[in-house]
Amino acid sequence: MEDPAVDVETTGENVAGERPEDEPEAVTDDVTAHDEEVELERTIGLVGGLAIGIGTMIGAGIFVFPGLAATAAGPAAALSFVIGGVIALLVALPTSELATAMPRSGGGYYFISRSLGTAYGAIVGIGLWLGLVFASAFYLVGLGHYIVAVLAEVGVALSVPLAPHVLLGLTFAVLLVALSIGGTENTASLQNIIVVVLLAILTGFLTYGSLDALGVFGRETAPEAFFSQGYFPVLTTAALVFTSYLGFAQVATVAGEIKKPSQNLPRAMIGSVLIVTVFYVVTIFVATSAFGAEPLGEFGETAMVEVARELLGLPGAVLILFAGLLATFSSANASILSASRSVYALSRDALLPRRASKVNLRYGTPHVALLLAGGPIVVLVATDEVEVLAEVASFLHLVMYGLICVALIVLRRRDPSWYDPSYRMPGVPALPAIGAVASFALIAFMNPTSIFVGVVIMLVSYLWYRYYAGTVELKGDV
Amino acid sequence: MPDRPSVLVPIRVLEGESLPEGVPKFLANAHVVLLGYHVIPEQTAPGQARMQFEERANRKLDQFETAFTDAGATVERRLVFTHGAQKTINRQIIEHDCLAVLVPNAIPAPENVLVAVRGTVGLDRLARVVGGLFADADVGVTLYHVVGGGETDEDVEMLLESLQDRLVESDIAEDRIETLTDTADEPLDAIAETAEDFDAVVMGETDPSLATFVFGMPADQVADRFLGPVLVVQREPPADEGNGMEEAAGER
Questions:
Q1: Checking phi first, is residue B105 left (phi over 0); if not, alpha (psi -120 to 50) or beta?
Q2: Secondary structure of chain B: what % helix, strand, coil (to 5)?
Q3: Which of A10, A22, A41, A348 best tests the B interface by mutation, with the highest count of B CBs <10 A?
Q4: A82-86, A176-180, A287-291, range with the lowest pLDDT
């Protein structure tokens, strides 16, 4: 089957005189065709797509947040994750529809720039790039905590000038970027394996934990009021932990490389949201049942290790430590790669210098784009502000999510002739409208520092667009 | 003159791989599907590589295309940026209905060609390729069969004769066709050894269960040792467009 491409004549040029690349002519199940003779092969299947989505998300929700979330909201933190999951789903549906209509690299940025225009596109595109950078830094700090916990387990205490987990986070940031630039190994199939191993470990652990929490093994669980911290913290916690749901949009950033995009994109995005939501909610249930919310919070980022130790002893702790390492590592890695894809999408459209997406001749990898992701990540990891990093990442994504919902409503209403998604979400315009409102509303529950940083980034993005690419016109015939 | 058999010529166009000498002449009677491909690591979006390399790749493909058309072939061409070479090659074989794939190695002016005949399966396609390519060329064709266990001399004779008849029908002079049989435990070794006396090899895909891997396949092992061009005749594509094949080869 063949879809007509978006009916858009990109025009204008940036201050360096670069013009947006031409749009492709056609999209098929197997390729993006630029003209009769030049094709871009699609090579990522459903499994690969799910692995990107789940692999990015599961690191944060299970291995970093339970302690933090339980402190803030008590056992009702489970509800916070449900709220996050529902909002993610409300956005995953329109994202899926748009992705099947426009399966191009850049995901949300592409949909918004083509349907709402360059200004929105620039804000979202630069926001997506930096949002992924913040997310990546957040995962790396989490990874640092897990390595410290592993070392503590074997009796090694690091004495270094910096906080040890920050130092380790920085080391891994540099290592990951270097690997991405110099490594031509098949990292994606490694990602698939990691995700499968993770899901297997978690399924086993959570099944045991749930049975235990329900009293099957005759152990008393800590009885506690569900809303021990009141109702309002449930919402602020939802805003905080929303970082655990950013991954499905990463599937859309590689939409240009997904095989049979009309089937695989919706399945991978909606599927990964549903799967991780179940895992998150069960995790919080098990974690709060094992300890009660308050002690859980005292364990901080690696609270899950203590939960595992409580339930299964040392082997459990080791298993979860291992899983936590894998999960945070894969989340960070996937985010760096997606950030680099976003830089490419911006540079393709002349919103960033063409140089930014240059591929190096030796390895065939986009070293400039990867460094544009890696450089800021290093700085952000050094701040060690876990909650701010998570919230800013969520903020920038939520702005995009809200606008994706708006874009969907606009496209459905105008119904341009090229707009022919093979997947149509139900409940338009009500569901996407709720999705948009919920996305923007969640931002309001964040702490002021995160909102401030987020707003500044949006403002700078807009000014950059005005200065650098003011005449570039990316909006399609809408 | 028989139909031009369509032959896929895959070339890693940006890695210094160029069109080996003699290949255009070898395929003068073919409909050449010229595939320039560039394999990129997963960190890189295919479109990103295209932005940077399209022009250079197309300049090289222009040269190759001219070489083929000058030699007399008809040419259709594609430039593909891909994460998975095998998926790309398989897709091209199906989309362009290619009878054979060339493992491109240099060839002097071809004088004699070794045709490795495996069995009755796929004989028709083999005949179409050999007949189509060498009908009016001044090339000696040697039909070669490695006798396996359970085959009688009669079986072998029938097999080679039926192919010979097909080739004569498609205008290859009878005196240009020879037959040769051999007994060996390892047919591939035998083919590679015998091939040393020839300029080019035409052989079928081997084990159907491994059919997706044109390269890194028995045919490829022969090509590696033989150093001349090997034409790998493809099996009949399965009725359902071979989606399963792609899954197996292109999944990541």
A1: beta
A2: 40, 25, 35
A3: A41
A4: A287-291
pLDDT tens digit sequence for B53-83: 999 999 999 999 999 999 999 999 999 999 9
A39:B48 CB<8 A: no
User: Looking at the domain assignment, is residue A474 inside a domain?
Assistant: no
Distance CA B4, CA B137 (A): 13
- As a whole number of angstroms, the distance between CA A185 and CA A162 comes to 32
For chain A positions 287-346, those within 8 Å of chain B (CB to CB) are 337, 340-341, 344
Q: Determine the 3-state secondary structure of B204 from DSSP.
A: strand
Contacts across the A-B interface (CB distance below 8 Å):
111
Mutation for testing the A interface, residue in B15, B34, B43 having most A CBs under 10 Å: B43
ipTM of this predicted structure: 0.88
Q: Which domains are seen in chain B, by residue range? A: 6-101 (3.40.50.620), 112-233 (3.40.50.620)
- Interface touch A43/B84, C-beta < 8 Å: yes
Distance CA A354, CA B245 (A): 37
pLDDT of residue B249: 39
Q: Select the residue of B46, B54, B78 nearest A257 (Cβ to Cβ).
A: B46
Residues 6+ apart with CB under 8 A from A124: A108, A109, A112, A113, A399, A400, A403
Question: How far is A58 from A238, CA to CA, in rounded Å?
Answer: 16
The pTM is what?
A: 0.87
In a domain, residue A475? The reply is: no
> Is the CB of residue A107 less than 8 Å away from at least one CB of chain B?
no
Instruction: Tell me the pLDDT tens digit for each residue of A244-254.
Output: 998 888 898 88
Residues of chain A contacting residue B47, judged by C-beta atoms under 8 Å apart: 21, 32, 40, 105, 256, 344, 348
Domain interval for residue A355: 2-469
Residue A54 CA to residue A272 CA, distance in Å, equals 5
Distance from the B209 Cα atom to the nearest Cα atom in chain A, whole angstroms: 21
Kindly state the helix (H) or strand (E) to which residue B93 belongs, with its residue range. Answer: helix B85-95
CATH of the domain at A400: 1.20.1740.10
